[in-house]
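so my prof wants the structure for this chain in the tokens format not the other one, which i didnt know existed until like an hour ago. anyway here's the sequence
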Amino acid sequence: MPKKQPTAAKRARTAARAGAKYTAALRHETGAHPLPPHLALFDTDALDEGDRMVVDCLRALAAEGGPLTVRMAEPDPEVLEARMRAEEKGIRPQWQRWASAEAAVDGYVLRETQYGPNRSGYTSTNRGPRVPVPVRADDGTVTVVAMPEWARLHEGQWIWEHTGWPVERPGRIVDPPQEFSPAPGLRWQVAVWLDLAHEGKVLGEDYGGGTSDWSTVGWCTSREDAQLIARAFTSHRGNHARADVIEHGSDNGVVSLTRDTYLTAPDAPARPRPPALGEPRGTLAAGPRPSSPDRSEIPEPAWYQGAKHPPNSSLIVWTGSGWRTLVHTYWQSSGIAAVLGIGAGGPYEWAEAWGPRHPDRDMHDWTQEGRELTHRFPEPAYEERTRLINAWRQAREDALVAALADRGGLTREQAAARLAEGGEKYRQVLEVGQATISRALHTARRALPEGPERTAIRHALDDLMDRHLLPADAERIAGEQLDSEIESTRSPGTTAWCRRAVAEYVSPAADPAAAGVEGFRPQDTTMAS
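here's what i got, hopefully its the right format
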């Protein structure tokens, strides 16, 4: 038997005899050492002699500060059968490795199982087996918590599923797994422990599905940006129990190092309720929203060649004098903006999310062609969205007037008058000419693999459709496109009309009425009147 030592549990029992609640007194004795609120605490007075001896031995080992012994028992037969089937097929099993734990006087005995905490028969009164786990605080006091029996293998070591603590050294969430920087400039990683066992929920007893684990929020170019995001994720009670800021070397030949660790405080406020549909998301700052940056101002980093899934979406913030990239992430920009509190009173008043552009995704083609704006923060209200749409339409109309004036040798006033005189028929001619040129660019674009050349054609398409800027040899490539298209559903007269529309769009006729352009013919003016 180990020698008797003063422990927090003994002091708590003394307080309980004086009328205090045992668990409350025991938590008070743990001082500044935070324990997950959903874990129950072991009352050794309710145990028989054998179980009490096991708990006392584990408490004594934890008080000495040494690791607890972890031994593996013979796995369940279904685990052996699954391994044999995998070996016969020549594959390496990729499933999660689970084990059921049983306490011993010097540590734990783990028996590997096939499916983990998904047993049936749990009820509100029968919560399943609990294992005593001693936790040593910084001041040397030891608290024994009642842990659900399940452990899983994480990066080569067994951890308790419901807290993320290593089985041999409980009390601290296991460190994040080793990852590699996706680009030379992104040296600061923000990783958070996603805790799915908050508010007393227990995997396999209250819910099934995902497991608590580390998740990379994003990658930053500076430590200050990473610290800002990590602090924001742990500033409220919720699913994020810990956040780490990890430094990587200038190349992937240097092992990463955790520089900062943030834990959620026990008295942290609850995270605000997400706004319901129709409610404003974020508080708009005073003054107008700054204009979005040009696509050339937010280039994508040069990813390492081995980065298969780089964090190619980003959150950019307005600093008062310009835009800058705060973090590159895996489509988590909205969540980061929410925890940061982008808007009035937050660290930044305005932000935008930019991500890879997949223009052919409706055809299940995920070839990337540059980047595009995906979201604005705070989210624009209905009135602001209406203004943005109207401003875009007016800019497109102004671009058409400017292009018609430049290519036709007209003033802007003359070009606007020409559009008004020609009416909808003349606009249809210009739209057909523009669409024919765009079809030629689409044909050339889809014939190329993903890369700078294909993205350059995509940018030429954007300039054509939004700003009415012509690509090089526009009339020639449009003619080749019409020659290559099958005319089974289109008459030769329609093809000739398309060629005339391209010619009018590229080089507007000096006298459209004499040239017989639609919208200026006598029959068109008669119908319009």
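also thought this was worth mentioning. Residues 278 and 381 are 9 Å apart (CA to CA).
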